[in-house]
Amino acid sequence: MSELRSAGWYGGNDRNAFIHRAWMRRGLPEDAFNGTKPHIAIANTASDLTPCNAHLNEVSEYVQKGVWEAGGIPHNLPVVSIGETQVKPTAMLWRNMAAMAIEEMLRANPIDGVVLLGGCDKTIPALLMAAASVNIPAIVVPGGPMLTGTFRGEALGCGTDVWRLSEEVRSGQLSNEQFIKSESSMIRSKGHCNTMGTASTMAVVAEALGMTIPGFAGTPAADSRLLALSHETGRQIVEMIHADRRPSQIMVKESFINAIIAVAAVGGSTNSVVHMLAIAGRLGVQLSLEDFDSAGRDVPLLANLQPSGKFLMDDLYRAGGLLALLGQISNRFSSAPITVTGKPLTDYLPGNEIFDTSVIKSPQSPLMEGAGIAVLRGNLAPNGAIIKPSAATPKLLQHRGPALVFDSVEDLHARIDDPDLEVSPETVLILRGCGPKGYPGMPEVGNMPLPKKILEQGIRDMVRISDGRMSGTAYGTIILHVSPEAAAGGPLALVQTGDMIALDVAARTLNMEVSEEVLATRSPSLATTSAYAAPVRGWSKLYVDHVQGADLGADLDFLNGSSGEKVSRESH
Fold first, then answer.
1. Which residues pair with 223 in a beta bridge?
2. Could you give the 3-state DSSP secondary structure of residue 345?
3. Superfamily of domain 374-534, CATH level 4
4. How many CB atoms lie within 10 A of CB 489?
5. What is the pLDDT of residue 391?
6. The model's pTM
7. pLDDT (tens digit, 9 = 90+) per residue, 308-367?
8. Which residues pair with 378 in a beta bridge?
9. Mean of the per-residue pLDDT values for the chain?
10. Which residues make Cβ contacts (< 8 Å) with residue 305, sequence separation at least 6?
11. Which CATH architecture does the domain made up of 38-148+188-348 adopt?
12. Which residues contact 151 (CB under 8 A, 6 or more apart)?
């Protein structure tokens, strides 16, 4: 083992070393400062206002036990926590801020490695972005999904059933009283959403990238085995420091391709695209939208999980878990990249038994062929847009219909239930001004509610297009992340109600049937531009001025690449 990074603070006998040691003694043993014991930060996103992560303080205790046991010195490091369910205008606005703050704290402090505790869906991406930027040994502990709740004797998928039941209320099929009654049944235990939403997907991504102990992703938050794996993670980070095993060695291009394949096989969230692009950007890995389309295009959907299927995350765990599922398609994964253990993911795939074939399907009889996220291009999305075919209505994957344009979320809410709204099942709903710059922060509004008059006809899906995102728990024939976004000068700003829109997912095209000559005469309306965000100070101002498009991961332009672990100057 080379000299520990923390020795740059604690080593020597000068005044600065004295200060660093003296203020940290507080019960630490004498040999904590002699350069033999690595100092480990536990970057903890626990917060009562991030309810899905509230249990991570308990998880941290077990990580600490493992660190002590392996001869390390653990340090609790509370970091910025963002809960998708609570913060406004959107948690995505704060992902880059959290990543930047975590990065700076990891670099500035006397630590040799870090354990990343995350759960709710922006926290794991932010933690991985930060770790990639500093590039000290790092490992992820995913907080785990909650247990399944029930309502009227049926399992509830949190998130997914919010969207479903709220539409039933609007259609008159469910009373508002019953809807509110389901509220107390949906969140059964500690943990994040129990569907294959973004939180579960990012745990899968972290494992497929090699950044967790293999077999960790999907372990329920309330299961004692999560605490056992957290204990083991504490031991593992100490071993990683001794081996000098860093994120840049683990998260290589092949790791990202492995993660794209894994996301396709589990029917993962579209949000994984923008997050993986951002993580790759911090590492200098050349990852593009085309990689998502090509790597995931022919991958079968094997996880029968909401929102693409029937079951929930604790069903996947009892059926054999993620490794058993990925083992079904082990030949698709590269064995080149290592994991946090120093061994490739493929070493952990053989021999994992499947106990319920209704939950984990076989490649021979998948839930869907070619389930990977599809990347669309055309004159409506020159830089790309995405759709999740596994969550869409098959007959709508090729569709032509007139546009109905909403200039903002407020415009949508004001008009969507108007009985005089000119809309039919063939109409294509378009929402703009919801990209990274326009909102700001790219909110989860892409799964627009259907017009009430359409719901009353018994119809539950329409083609919907936006420059925003949607929750990983959502479903429908929904085109997202249209780039460039309207607020960045994208053609989405020029679409007018009545324009014909042509979607062909098989051909990977998305077009408005308006000539270039006509488009050249158009400019964004005042209703469109006046809805764009125009912050004058603070983080929102910095964000809008520097955020890149969704096709580049929506990271800030000055955060591409990494700054490494070096600190240039002393503090005293």
1. none
2. helix
3. IlvD/EDD C-terminal domain-like (3.50.30.80)
4. 12
5. 92
6. 0.96
7. 999 999 999 999 999 999 999 999 999 999 999 999 999 999 999 999 999 999 999 999
8. 381
9. 96
10. 195, 196, 266, 267, 311, 312, 313, 315, 316, 359
11. 3-Layer(aba) Sandwich (3.40)
12. 161, 181, 182, 185, 186
